[in-house]
Give the backbone structure.
Amino acid sequence: MKILESSYEVMITSQEIQKKVIYLADLINEDYKDKNPILVCNLKGAFIFLSDFCRCLTIPHEVDFMSTSSYKKGMETSGIVRIVKDLKTNIIGRNVLIIEDIVDTGLTLNYIKKFLALHNPLSIRVVSLLNKKDRRKIEVDVDYIGFEIPDKFIIGYGLDYEEKYRGLKYIAELIDIKNMDK
Ligand code: PRP
C-alpha cells in the first residue's frame, strides 16, 4: 500500500508530551529509588520517548534495547510477533521497566513480557507513553500510562506511517489518506 497524499492534525503537543514525560519519570524516581531498574526500550517506536524519559530520571538506571516485529499490512497488525533483536543485558534478578511508545492491541507487549519473564527478572513493569485501550485483543497490564488516546492512526514522536514522520516533535492524527495504491 503506497500513500500518495496525506495530512495530519496535532493531537498532543510537544509541551504536553514533555510535561507528561517529567510526570512519568517522577513516578519512577519515587517507585524505583535504590532499585537500579533496567529500562528495556522496544525499538523502533519508543526510542524518542526513552531518550527524553531517561534524561528526566534522577535515580541510577541502565538502558538496553530490543526489537520486535509484527507484520503489518497498512495499519492493521497480523498479530504475529517475533523478536528481531534481543537484549545484551542479563536481566536475572533485575527490576525491568519496559518502555513503550504505544500499547494498541497489546499483542506486542504481551509477547515481550512473556519473553522477558523466561529470563527470571525480579520484576517486570511497563511504562507506555500512549495507550489505546479500546483496541485491545489481549488483556495486558500497563503500569504507567502517559495518555489514553482514541482509536485514531497516529504518527510522530517515534511513531511512524511506513517509516515516515518518526521525527515529529508532537503526536498527530494522520488524516485524509487518499489515493491509496493497494
Ligand atoms: C508499535 C509500537 C508497539 C506496538 C504496539 O511497534 O511501538 O511496540 O506497535 O502495537 P500492539 O499493541 O498492537 O502490538 P511497531 O510494530 O509498529 O514497530 P516500530 O516500533 O518499529 O514502528
